[in-house]
Design a protein that fits this description.
11 strands, 333 residues, TIM Barrel, single chain, 38% helix, two-stranded antiparallel ribbon, alpha/beta
């Protein structure tokens, strides 16, 4: 994208807009009997931690950055757990570095959603128990894993989150299915299995539009509502075979989730680019405003609503989270 693109205007323009938005996102916003938290899907992206982008001068360690982020927003999404299983010590440090009412949403590990993982990123104990032919592979899939080793993956994931659970700082585990997972009994069973194995609140995001096409939409909604599983409503580039439409459906009265991926069509399906490039897009105010009544309509029916900006290139996500929070606050005034 060229710098003249209004959706990629650079750090300074985004900072100016962020300052105008003020601190509406700093605390949850009350909507009816529920509350809405705004935040981003990262606090550690290299384009975000670069000097002078989002963090103040001197906030150069992991602890300082998280403490600062948590002073600006009441929720964050942890994506690193998709690649590497979390560990308890790290989760405990998150608890200690954030205010009492701060909440973490945790991305499910790749193996839990049918996506491949690199063998070298698995815990050593799991690697050592892999059959010889799997040890030799660079990447393996869930279907390849012996049942007892898959059990061990779920067990470690669950146990690592105990500090967050005990501190009431776990929002939900985000279970995001890849674009090759289509509506089927097998896929629905995988959702329920992951939920049961984890025994934690989950929220489900699909990455293929067929879940909401004319043939499958009603069944998808009924499945989620019958099982009271929160659906992750998404905003993402449209026009691709995999594009998920911006469907807004309350499926659980405890939690609703909105995730904003940006609308960077040029990079959406590009291979071998950093996530920050795929989501490199700054929403304009009209695009954010279109979502405000939709967020409010769900929030009125739900105890907690999380609005997460995944356009974490530079300060774009933090800027949009602040702007969207201000729009919702103004609507409630």
């Amino acid at each position: 994208m060229a710098k003249t693109d209004p959706h990629d205007p650079g750090v300074e323009t985004a900072r100016g807009r962020s300052e105008e938005a003020g601190d509406a996102a700093r605390s949850p916003i009350k909507v009816g009997k529920g509350k809405v938290r705004f935040g981003t899907a990262s606090w550690t992206d290299p384009t975000m931690t670069a000097p002078g982008v989002f963090y103040p001068k001197g906030a150069s360690t992991a602890e300082e950055r998280l403490r600062f982020y948590a002073s600006q927003f009441p929720v964050v999404e942890v994506d690193a757990t998709y690649y590497v299983l979390p560990n308890k010590r790290t989760a405990q440090s998150w608890v200690e570095r954030t205010p009492k009412d701060f909440v973490f949403d945790i991305k499910a590990h790749a193996l839990m959603t049918g996506q491949p993982t690199e063998v070298t990123r698995l815990p050593k104990a799991v690697q050592e128990e892999l059959p010889g032919e799997l040890k030799a592979k660079r990447r393996i899939y869930r279907k390849d894993m012996p049942v007892e080793l898959l059990d061990a993956v779920y067990k470690q994931f669950r146990e690592a989150l105990e500090p967050l659970i005990e501190a009431s700082k776990l929002g939900a585990v985000f279970v995001q299915f890849p674009k090759w997972v289509f509506p089927s009994n097998e896929a629905r069973e995988l959702i329920l299995e992951t939920w049961q194995r984890l025994d934690l609140p989950i929220a489900v995001e699909f990455r293929h539009g067929s879940w909401f096409n004319e043939k499958n939409a009603e069944r998808t909604v009924k499945f989620l509502q019958d099982n009271k599983i929160p659906y992750v409503a998404v905003d993402e580039p449209q026009g691709f075979k995999s594009s998920v439409p911006p469907v807004v459906i309350p499926t659980n009265d405890e939690l609703a989730v909105f995730r904003f991926h940006g609308r960077n069509k040029d990079n959406w399906e590009k291979k071998d680019i950093p996530p920050s490039e795929r989501f490199r897009y700054l929403y304009d105010e009209d695009e954010l405003a279109d979502w405000t009544p939709k967020i409010a309509s769900v929030a009125r029916l739900t105890k907690e609503t999380h609005v997460v900006y995944n356009n974490c290139f530079s300060n774009y996500g933090t800027t949009n989270a602040r702007e969207a929070a201000l729009l919702l606050a103004q609507m409630q005034a």
